[in-house]
Amino acid sequence: MPARRADLIVQEQRFQGRAALFVKDPLTLRYFRFAVQEYRLFELLDGRRNADELHAAFIEEPLPQQVTVEEVTLLVKRWQQVGLLEDADPATTSRTFAIRHAQKQRPQWFGWLSRVLYLKLHAFDPDALLNRLYPWVRWLFHPMGVALALAVMLSAALLVIGRFDQFSSRPELQNFHAFFNLQNIFWLWLTIGVVKVLHEFGHALTCKHFGGECHAMGLLFMCFSPCLYCDVSDSWMLPNKWHRIAIAAAGVYVELLTASLATFVWWSTPPGVLHSIAFSAMVFGSVQTFLINANPLMKFDGYYMMSDFLEVPNLRQKSYLSLKHYATKWCWGTDQPAPGPTGLRGLLFTVYAIAATFYGWMVTVFMVWFLTTFLEPYKLTIFGWGLAALAATNMFVLPLLMGLVTVRRNPAVLRPKQWWRPLLAAAFVAGAVYALCVIPLPRRVYAVLTIEPIHSQQVTVAVTGQIRKIHVVAGQAVQAGDLLIELDNPELRLVHDRLTQERGSFQVQLNAAQASLDPARSQQLQALLTEIDSQLALQQRRLDDLVVRSPCSGAVIPEPEQQQLAPSGTTRVSVLPRWTRSPLSPQNIGAVLEAGTPVCRVVESAACEAVAILPQNQIEFVRVAQPTAIKLDAFPGETLLGKVRELSVQDVTDPPAQLLNVSGSELPAVTFGPGAGQLATPHYRVRIELTGFSHQGDTPHRTPLRPGLRGRVWIRSGSQTLAQMWWRSFCEAIQS
Question: Which domains does the chain have, with CATH numbers?
Answer without folding.
Answer: 9-108 (no CATH), 115-311 (no CATH), 313-421 (no CATH), 445-454+605-719 (2.40.30.170), 457-566+574-598 (no CATH)
